[in-house]
Amino acid sequence: MPADPVHEEESAQASLFEEERDAAGEGIEQVVGVFAEQQRVVSGLDGFALLAAAESVGSLVAAEMSHDGLPWSAEEHDALLTDLLGTRPSGGLRPRKLQGLADRISAAFGARAHVNPDSPAQIIKAFASAGLPIASTRAHVLKGIDHPAVPLLLEYKELSRLHTAHGWAWLDTWVSDGRFRPEYVVGGVVSGRWATSGGGALQIPRVLRRAVVADPGWALVVADAAQLEPRVLAALAGDRAFTEAAAQGDLYAALSDAFQDDGVSMSARDKAKLALLSAMYGGGTGEAVQLLGVLKKRFPDAFEYVEAAARAGERGRLVRSRLGRTCPPPSAGWRELTLEGGDPSGSAGQALRSRGRFTRNFVVQATAADWALALLGSLRRRLRVLDAPRLVFFQHDEVVVHTPVELAGDVAAAVHASADEARRLLFGDTPVVFPMEVAVVDRYSDAK
């Protein structure tokens, strides 16, 4: 019997997934390396680590809110639309109320006229034929015209906007199982404010808020920061007199004494409000000019803070929020247009002033976004301890928590504590307060 053949020892067969494991190991090492480099860069930027953490928790909150959804009654929504527009139409027709308005608008321009109120060109042409030339169909333009079609057009525009943006098609698309689940875009605006990629969560019309209804045995805790941006400016600028006023509940009322004897015909509180908004947004015409002079004289450090930001923007420089969020740099086209020697009264000067207005507001609005993210992170942590309550809505300076009724008081306390923690995280021991106006309601529309 022949001997068994002698086989040379073969090398062990490679594992089926060995190459994949090696590649995965290299990939993990790369991820770890990138993370380490990010940590190194973040640690070298004053305050930026807190901004990164705030953005991360904001993304988490956004995902949780989209998952949990905002309580929404499809029945209430449908009833509201039916009351305002008539029964739901079919076949792409206008709702009954809109069609009735469209017919009356045509009649207002003459028995033989046929004007489509959805067509700006036809409206402009109809007014021109009536001897009333207009440049656009914007509401403020129409309000300046004396013509019987104007009130009808304004009503039509308002109802048509509701039908288009939040009508039955929106209800079918975005509300299911008693919840509205929007798609948030965290930091979707350069200032750090959120946006949405669908559903228009940040533009829920007041008239529709009655459709936001808590579940049986639950409540909505609605809280918004009072006069947030002026208080942010007070904390940023450190203006002593302004800071003392911002330690009060109503900031505008506390500032009103400075605007008593300036000759402007409006309440002192309204004058304080107009002056502050003009300083933060770059207003400078009419009565605002005089009020800004008062603001500059009485609160020089606050005035100079936004003025310095505006000057930096006009010079093409960058400005930052409290936590280090940086404004976008000017475009190459802007730099070319504003090269030295450009006409200050022409397009170059207009571009300079426009960027100055942007950076003037950026330092305040972006810091307000920083504060709001800190509020969200702090509030989420406190709500997790309570277990059942859920953050279900956020809009710039407003939050809504859906909670069992018996925990509503605890949620309200958590909101106030979170606002104070956000203040301390951003501004330390500033005496500026950030009061939250809190309402416990069954319907969102009952909060304000």
UniProtKB/TrEMBL annotation:
Keywords linked to the UniProt accession: DNA replication, Exonuclease, Hydrolase, Nuclease
EC number: 2.7.7.7
InterPro entries (UniProt xref): DNA-dir_DNA_pol_A_palm_dom, DNA/RNA_pol_sf, DNA_polymerase_A
Record SMART domains: POLAc
Alphabetical list of Pfam families matching this protein: DNA_pol_A (PF00476)
Enzymatic reactions: DNA(n) + a 2'-deoxyribonucleoside 5'-triphosphate = DNA(n+1) + diphosphate
GO MF, one annotated term: exonuclease activity
Domain DNA-directed DNA polymerase family A palm as annotated: residue spans: 205-407
Highest taxon listed in the record's lineage: Bacteria
Record NCBIfam families: PRK14975.1-1 (NF011538)
PANTHER family associated with the record: DNA POLYMERASE I (PTHR10133), DNA POLYMERASE NU (PTHR10133:SF27)
Name recorded for this polypeptide: DNA-directed DNA polymerase
Species the sequence originates in: Actinomadura meridiana
